[in-house]
Design goal:
334 residues; alpha/beta; Rossmann fold; six-stranded mixed beta sheet; globular; binds 4'-deoxy-4'-aminopyridoxal-5'-phosphate
Length: 334
Protein backbone atom coordinates (compact mmCIF):
# COMPACT_ATOMS: atom_id res chain seq x y z
CA UNK A 1 0.00 0.00 0.00
CA UNK A 2 1.41 3.38 -0.99
CA UNK A 3 0.39 6.19 1.37
CA UNK A 4 -0.24 9.73 0.05
CA UNK A 5 2.96 11.64 -0.86
CA UNK A 6 4.76 13.29 2.05
CA UNK A 7 5.35 17.03 2.14
CA UNK A 8 8.13 18.01 -0.25
CA UNK A 9 11.65 17.65 1.08
CA UNK A 10 14.14 20.47 1.04
CA UNK A 11 17.15 20.45 -1.25
CA UNK A 12 19.06 22.46 1.35
CA UNK A 13 21.72 20.74 3.42
CA UNK A 14 21.43 21.29 7.19
CA UNK A 15 24.08 19.25 8.96
CA UNK A 16 23.43 20.40 12.54
CA UNK A 17 21.62 17.21 13.56
CA UNK A 18 24.63 15.08 12.56
CA UNK A 19 26.63 16.62 15.40
CA UNK A 20 24.15 15.10 17.86
CA UNK A 21 24.83 11.51 16.77
CA UNK A 22 27.04 9.27 18.93
CA UNK A 23 29.17 10.11 21.97
CA UNK A 24 26.32 8.84 24.11
CA UNK A 25 26.84 8.46 27.88
CA UNK A 26 27.58 5.12 29.58
CA UNK A 27 25.63 4.95 32.86
CA UNK A 28 26.04 2.63 35.85
CA UNK A 29 22.83 0.88 36.84
CA UNK A 30 22.83 -0.61 40.35
CA UNK A 31 20.45 -3.55 40.84
CA UNK A 32 20.09 -3.78 44.62
CA UNK A 33 18.12 -7.03 45.00
CA UNK A 34 20.39 -8.84 42.54
CA UNK A 35 23.53 -7.25 44.04
CA UNK A 36 25.09 -6.27 40.71
CA UNK A 37 25.99 -3.14 38.76
CA UNK A 38 25.91 -3.02 34.98
CA UNK A 39 27.12 -0.40 32.50
CA UNK A 40 24.54 0.72 29.93
CA UNK A 41 25.32 2.72 26.80
CA UNK A 42 22.52 5.28 26.27
CA UNK A 43 21.94 4.90 22.55
CA UNK A 44 18.35 6.10 23.01
CA UNK A 45 19.85 9.59 23.36
CA UNK A 46 20.79 9.73 19.69
CA UNK A 47 18.72 12.48 17.99
CA UNK A 48 16.04 10.30 16.38
CA UNK A 49 15.94 8.14 19.50
CA UNK A 50 17.90 5.03 18.57
CA UNK A 51 21.25 3.40 17.93
CA UNK A 52 20.39 3.34 14.21
CA UNK A 53 21.28 7.01 13.74
CA UNK A 54 24.92 5.89 13.69
CA UNK A 55 24.37 3.42 10.84
CA UNK A 56 22.26 5.85 8.80
CA UNK A 57 24.84 8.62 9.10
CA UNK A 58 27.77 6.32 8.31
CA UNK A 59 26.21 4.71 5.22
CA UNK A 60 24.87 7.95 3.73
CA UNK A 61 28.11 9.93 4.25
CA UNK A 62 30.10 7.01 2.80
CA UNK A 63 27.78 6.83 -0.24
CA UNK A 64 28.26 10.58 -0.78
CA UNK A 65 32.06 10.19 -0.61
CA UNK A 66 31.92 7.41 -3.19
CA UNK A 67 29.72 9.51 -5.51
CA UNK A 68 26.73 7.16 -5.19
CA UNK A 69 24.24 9.87 -4.22
CA UNK A 70 23.11 12.78 -6.38
CA UNK A 71 20.31 15.35 -6.20
CA UNK A 72 17.83 12.90 -7.80
CA UNK A 73 18.75 9.93 -5.61
CA UNK A 74 16.13 8.21 -3.46
CA UNK A 75 17.33 6.30 -0.39
CA UNK A 76 15.31 3.06 -0.23
CA UNK A 77 15.41 0.59 2.68
CA UNK A 78 13.29 -2.18 4.15
CA UNK A 79 13.27 -1.86 7.94
CA UNK A 80 11.32 -2.76 11.05
CA UNK A 81 11.35 0.87 12.08
CA UNK A 82 14.36 2.39 13.75
CA UNK A 83 16.61 2.35 10.68
CA UNK A 84 13.77 3.86 8.68
CA UNK A 85 13.35 6.67 11.18
CA UNK A 86 17.11 7.32 11.20
CA UNK A 87 17.38 7.33 7.41
CA UNK A 88 14.35 9.62 7.18
CA UNK A 89 16.05 12.00 9.64
CA UNK A 90 19.34 12.03 7.71
CA UNK A 91 17.46 12.44 4.41
CA UNK A 92 15.56 15.42 5.84
CA UNK A 93 18.77 17.07 7.04
CA UNK A 94 20.85 16.41 3.92
CA UNK A 95 18.10 17.02 1.38
CA UNK A 96 17.58 13.49 0.01
CA UNK A 97 14.28 11.78 -0.75
CA UNK A 98 13.80 8.66 1.38
CA UNK A 99 11.41 5.75 0.79
CA UNK A 100 10.92 3.20 3.57
CA UNK A 101 9.41 -0.26 3.12
CA UNK A 102 7.75 -1.60 6.25
CA UNK A 103 5.49 -4.43 7.25
CA UNK A 104 1.89 -3.34 7.82
CA UNK A 105 2.27 -4.61 11.39
CA UNK A 106 4.86 -1.93 12.27
CA UNK A 107 3.61 0.32 15.04
CA UNK A 108 1.68 3.48 14.14
CA UNK A 109 4.13 5.72 16.00
CA UNK A 110 7.04 4.45 13.88
CA UNK A 111 5.13 5.14 10.68
CA UNK A 112 4.21 8.62 11.91
CA UNK A 113 7.84 9.47 12.76
CA UNK A 114 9.02 8.44 9.30
CA UNK A 115 6.35 10.51 7.60
CA UNK A 116 6.99 13.44 9.92
CA UNK A 117 10.57 13.60 8.62
CA UNK A 118 9.04 13.91 5.13
CA UNK A 119 9.89 10.39 3.93
CA UNK A 120 7.62 8.16 1.87
CA UNK A 121 6.34 4.92 3.40
CA UNK A 122 5.39 1.77 1.51
CA UNK A 123 3.69 -0.88 3.62
CA UNK A 124 3.75 -4.54 2.66
CA UNK A 125 1.49 -7.24 4.03
CA UNK A 126 1.50 -7.75 7.81
CA UNK A 127 3.10 -10.99 8.84
CA UNK A 128 5.36 -11.20 5.75
CA UNK A 129 9.08 -11.58 6.50
CA UNK A 130 11.85 -9.00 6.07
CA UNK A 131 12.80 -10.92 2.94
CA UNK A 132 9.50 -9.86 1.32
CA UNK A 133 10.41 -6.21 1.85
CA UNK A 134 13.99 -6.76 0.71
CA UNK A 135 12.74 -8.45 -2.48
CA UNK A 136 10.40 -5.51 -3.16
CA UNK A 137 13.27 -3.03 -2.67
CA UNK A 138 15.52 -4.99 -5.06
CA UNK A 139 12.78 -5.11 -7.69
CA UNK A 140 12.19 -1.34 -7.37
CA UNK A 141 15.94 -0.63 -7.64
CA UNK A 142 16.25 -2.86 -10.73
CA UNK A 143 13.64 -0.70 -12.51
CA UNK A 144 14.78 2.76 -11.39
CA UNK A 145 18.44 3.81 -11.11
CA UNK A 146 17.61 6.70 -8.78
CA UNK A 147 17.27 4.30 -5.85
CA UNK A 148 20.21 3.90 -3.46
CA UNK A 149 19.92 0.88 -1.15
CA UNK A 150 21.84 1.10 2.16
CA UNK A 151 21.22 -2.67 2.64
CA UNK A 152 21.79 -2.65 6.37
CA UNK A 153 21.68 -6.46 6.65
CA UNK A 154 24.68 -7.02 4.38
CA UNK A 155 26.52 -3.71 4.41
CA UNK A 156 29.83 -4.27 6.27
CA UNK A 157 29.81 -0.59 7.29
CA UNK A 158 26.99 -1.45 9.67
CA UNK A 159 29.39 -3.44 11.90
CA UNK A 160 32.53 -1.42 11.07
CA UNK A 161 31.00 1.83 12.23
CA UNK A 162 30.40 0.31 15.68
CA UNK A 163 34.06 -0.83 15.76
CA UNK A 164 35.18 2.76 15.21
CA UNK A 165 32.55 4.70 17.18
CA UNK A 166 30.31 2.90 19.73
CA UNK A 167 32.95 0.42 20.92
CA UNK A 168 35.73 3.03 21.17
CA UNK A 169 33.44 5.24 23.23
CA UNK A 170 32.65 2.27 25.53
CA UNK A 171 36.35 1.45 25.90
CA UNK A 172 37.24 4.92 27.12
CA UNK A 173 34.10 5.24 29.25
CA UNK A 174 34.48 2.03 31.32
CA UNK A 175 36.43 2.30 34.58
CA UNK A 176 38.80 -0.60 33.76
CA UNK A 177 38.66 -3.46 31.28
CA UNK A 178 35.39 -4.92 29.99
CA UNK A 179 34.60 -8.39 31.40
CA UNK A 180 31.48 -9.04 29.31
CA UNK A 181 29.52 -7.36 26.51
CA UNK A 182 25.98 -8.55 25.84
CA UNK A 183 23.45 -7.39 23.24
CA UNK A 184 20.60 -8.67 21.11
CA UNK A 185 20.80 -8.69 17.34
CA UNK A 186 18.63 -7.43 14.52
CA UNK A 187 21.10 -6.95 11.70
CA UNK A 188 23.86 -8.02 14.12
CA UNK A 189 25.86 -4.86 13.32
CA UNK A 190 26.11 -3.53 16.87
CA UNK A 191 26.86 -6.92 18.45
CA UNK A 192 29.44 -7.90 15.81
CA UNK A 193 31.15 -4.47 15.67
CA UNK A 194 31.25 -3.75 19.40
CA UNK A 195 32.17 -7.37 20.14
CA UNK A 196 35.11 -7.28 17.72
CA UNK A 197 36.58 -4.02 19.06
CA UNK A 198 36.05 -4.94 22.72
CA UNK A 199 37.77 -8.31 22.19
CA UNK A 200 40.68 -6.60 20.47
CA UNK A 201 41.30 -4.39 23.54
CA UNK A 202 40.11 -6.84 26.25
CA UNK A 203 40.89 -10.36 24.96
CA UNK A 204 39.41 -12.00 28.08
CA UNK A 205 36.06 -10.25 27.67
CA UNK A 206 33.09 -12.52 26.97
CA UNK A 207 30.91 -11.41 24.05
CA UNK A 208 27.40 -12.80 24.46
CA UNK A 209 24.40 -12.68 22.09
CA UNK A 210 21.05 -12.12 23.78
CA UNK A 211 18.10 -13.89 22.13
CA UNK A 212 14.39 -14.01 22.93
CA UNK A 213 13.72 -17.41 24.49
CA UNK A 214 10.89 -17.79 21.96
CA UNK A 215 13.28 -17.27 19.01
CA UNK A 216 16.70 -18.51 20.13
CA UNK A 217 18.04 -19.22 16.64
CA UNK A 218 21.74 -19.14 17.56
CA UNK A 219 20.92 -21.70 20.24
CA UNK A 220 19.58 -23.87 17.40
CA UNK A 221 15.88 -23.40 18.04
CA UNK A 222 13.09 -22.54 15.61
CA UNK A 223 12.05 -18.87 15.55
CA UNK A 224 8.63 -18.20 17.02
CA UNK A 225 6.59 -15.17 18.02
CA UNK A 226 8.18 -12.81 20.53
CA UNK A 227 7.60 -9.25 21.67
CA UNK A 228 11.07 -7.77 21.68
CA UNK A 229 10.75 -5.40 18.71
CA UNK A 230 13.85 -4.70 16.65
CA UNK A 231 15.67 -7.97 17.31
CA UNK A 232 15.53 -11.63 16.23
CA UNK A 233 13.73 -11.14 12.93
CA UNK A 234 13.45 -14.86 12.19
CA UNK A 235 16.91 -15.57 10.77
CA UNK A 236 20.57 -15.33 11.76
CA UNK A 237 21.84 -12.19 9.97
CA UNK A 238 24.96 -12.45 7.76
CA UNK A 239 26.86 -9.80 9.75
CA UNK A 240 26.75 -12.05 12.80
CA UNK A 241 28.68 -14.84 11.07
CA UNK A 242 31.97 -13.03 11.67
CA UNK A 243 31.11 -11.96 15.21
CA UNK A 244 33.47 -13.18 17.97
CA UNK A 245 30.73 -14.77 20.10
CA UNK A 246 31.54 -16.65 23.31
CA UNK A 247 27.97 -17.69 24.00
CA UNK A 248 24.29 -16.87 23.94
CA UNK A 249 21.75 -16.04 26.64
CA UNK A 250 17.97 -16.35 26.43
CA UNK A 251 15.50 -13.79 27.76
CA UNK A 252 11.76 -14.43 27.73
CA UNK A 253 9.53 -11.76 26.18
CA UNK A 254 7.75 -11.42 29.53
CA UNK A 255 11.08 -10.93 31.35
CA UNK A 256 12.12 -8.30 28.79
CA UNK A 257 8.89 -6.37 29.24
CA UNK A 258 9.12 -6.59 33.03
CA UNK A 259 12.72 -5.29 33.01
CA UNK A 260 11.81 -2.52 30.55
CA UNK A 261 9.02 -1.40 32.89
CA UNK A 262 11.49 -1.54 35.80
CA UNK A 263 13.95 0.67 33.86
CA UNK A 264 11.06 3.06 33.10
CA UNK A 265 9.61 3.16 36.62
CA UNK A 266 12.55 2.57 38.96
CA UNK A 267 15.42 4.13 37.02
CA UNK A 268 13.49 6.84 35.13
CA UNK A 269 14.91 5.59 31.83
CA UNK A 270 12.16 5.67 29.20
CA UNK A 271 13.68 3.01 26.96
CA UNK A 272 12.16 0.35 24.69
CA UNK A 273 11.80 -3.40 25.04
CA UNK A 274 15.10 -4.52 23.50
CA UNK A 275 16.86 -2.35 26.11
CA UNK A 276 14.98 -4.18 28.86
CA UNK A 277 15.93 -7.52 27.30
CA UNK A 278 19.60 -6.48 27.09
CA UNK A 279 19.64 -5.34 30.71
CA UNK A 280 17.88 -8.51 31.91
CA UNK A 281 20.62 -10.52 30.18
CA UNK A 282 23.39 -8.29 31.55
CA UNK A 283 22.11 -8.70 35.12
CA UNK A 284 22.10 -12.50 34.78
CA UNK A 285 25.64 -12.47 33.36
CA UNK A 286 26.92 -10.14 36.10
CA UNK A 287 25.46 -12.47 38.75
CA UNK A 288 27.59 -15.30 37.34
CA UNK A 289 30.82 -13.26 37.29
CA UNK A 290 33.04 -12.09 40.18
CA UNK A 291 31.68 -9.16 42.23
CA UNK A 292 32.49 -5.85 40.56
CA UNK A 293 32.93 -7.37 37.08
CA UNK A 294 32.35 -4.86 34.27
CA UNK A 295 29.35 -5.97 32.20
CA UNK A 296 28.36 -3.64 29.36
CA UNK A 297 25.15 -3.53 27.34
CA UNK A 298 23.14 -1.20 25.08
CA UNK A 299 19.96 0.81 25.68
CA UNK A 300 18.95 0.81 22.01
CA UNK A 301 15.91 3.07 21.70
CA UNK A 302 13.28 5.18 23.43
CA UNK A 303 9.98 3.89 24.78
CA UNK A 304 7.93 6.49 22.90
CA UNK A 305 8.28 4.20 19.89
CA UNK A 306 6.02 1.67 21.64
CA UNK A 307 2.97 3.64 22.81
CA UNK A 308 0.59 1.35 20.96
CA UNK A 309 2.31 -1.86 22.06
CA UNK A 310 2.07 -4.06 25.12
CA UNK A 311 4.86 -2.14 26.87
CA UNK A 312 2.36 0.64 27.62
CA UNK A 313 -0.77 -1.48 27.82
CA UNK A 314 -0.04 -4.46 29.96
CA UNK A 315 0.21 -5.89 33.42
CA UNK A 316 2.08 -8.83 34.88
CA UNK A 317 -0.81 -11.27 34.61
CA UNK A 318 -1.01 -10.85 30.83
CA UNK A 319 2.73 -11.28 30.48
CA UNK A 320 2.56 -14.69 32.11
CA UNK A 321 -0.30 -15.64 29.80
CA UNK A 322 1.79 -14.51 26.81
CA UNK A 323 4.63 -16.73 27.94
CA UNK A 324 2.34 -19.73 28.15
CA UNK A 325 0.84 -18.96 24.72
CA UNK A 326 4.25 -18.51 23.09
CA UNK A 327 5.49 -21.81 24.49
CA UNK A 328 2.33 -23.62 23.34
CA UNK A 329 2.70 -22.09 19.86
CA UNK A 330 6.30 -23.27 19.65
CA UNK A 331 5.45 -26.79 20.76
CA UNK A 332 2.75 -26.92 18.08
CA UNK A 333 5.31 -25.75 15.47
CA UNK A 334 7.92 -28.34 16.58
N1 LIG B 1 17.07 -2.87 19.42
C1 LIG B 1 16.26 -2.18 18.60
C2 LIG B 1 15.05 -1.50 19.18
C3 LIG B 1 16.51 -2.14 17.23
O1 LIG B 1 15.68 -1.46 16.42
C4 LIG B 1 17.64 -2.82 16.72
C5 LIG B 1 17.91 -2.77 15.25
N2 LIG B 1 16.93 -3.41 14.49
C6 LIG B 1 18.44 -3.55 17.60
C7 LIG B 1 18.14 -3.53 18.94
C8 LIG B 1 19.60 -4.39 17.11
O2 LIG B 1 20.56 -3.69 16.43
P1 LIG B 1 21.43 -4.34 15.27
O3 LIG B 1 20.67 -4.16 14.00
O4 LIG B 1 22.71 -3.58 15.32
O5 LIG B 1 21.62 -5.78 15.56
Amino acid sequence: MLLPPPPSHSAQRNEAVLSLIGNTPLVELRFEPEGVTIHAKCEFLNPSGSIKDRLAQCIILDAEKRGLLGPDSIILECTSGNTGISLAMIGAALGYRVTILMSGSASRERRLCIRQFGAELILFESGASYQTGIDISLAMAAKDSRYFLPRQFENPLNAEDHVHTTAQEILWQVPHLVDAFVAGYGTGGSLAGCGKAIKARCPDARVIAMEPEEAAMLAGELPCCHWIEGIAGGFVPPLLRAAPLDGTIKVKSAEALAMTQRLNRQFGLLVGTSSGANVAAAVKIAQDLRPGACVVTLLCDRADRYFSTRLFNDDGADLEQFDANAMAARKAKD
